[in-house]
Amino acid sequence: MLEDHIIDLYEKHAETWVQARLRERSFPEKSWLDRFCALVPSPANILDCGCGAGEPIATYLTAQGHSITGVDSSEKMVRMFRDRLPNQRALVQDMRKLSLAETFDGILAWDSFFHLNHDDQRRMFPIFRAHAKSGTALMFTSGSSHAEAIGVFQGEPLYHASLDSAEYRNLLEDHGFHVTENVDEDRNCGGRTIWLAQSHQPSTG
């Protein structure tokens, strides 16, 4: 199964991936990260699922004064994250098995969540909920319809999958999040489909 080789693929090509990101002149993620930051306190404690080497997401968020806990299945990526951001926390962990026994002001799964197969994506929502407090912002990228797609990275197949929009909305609502913004194939962000949600605040009566 191609999805089972994602970790090995990023481990094998970690340095190449990071250098490619560093060479990019554009930063299309910025506007969405700013929207995400508008929903969290300042400073915030943010969980970055699939943090990679911390570039550009964690680097940008720490520059805004936030604290990051990065988790990634690739040991090489985590090692580079620690080298780049020595004052932040990075853990070699599979997000599908994450159980940190703590909650965060914000949770990200940017360009990582969509590498999981359909069932693993569904199983992530209880994990998001377990690491959220009241008002936690959650942002992730997905596809725009129920499908699987195979890209190419360094000449090797790269697996992606997505549920449909209605199922994502239902999963978010069922696990205590309401959607604040959702854009399909955002042309201003590299064609990504982006979900920004927030855990329900308690009723004030």
* Main sheet specs: 7 strands, mixed
Q: What is the CATH domain class?
A: Alpha Beta
Mean pLDDT: 90
Oligomerization state: single chain
Share of helical residues: 25-40%
Total strands: the figure is: 9
Structural class: alpha/beta
Question: Could you please describe the fold and organization of this structure?
Answer:
With 205 residues, this protein is an alpha/beta fold. It has a single domain (2-23, 32-199), classed as Rossmann fold. It is built from seven helices and nine strands; from the N terminus they run H-H-H-E-H-E-H-E-E-H-E-E-E-H-E-E. The longest helix has 13 residues, at 118-130. The model has no long low-confidence stretch (mean pLDDT 90).
In short:
This protein is α/β, with parallel strands linked by helices.
Structure characteristics:
alpha/beta; Rossmann fold; 7-stranded mixed β-sheet; two-stranded antiparallel sheet
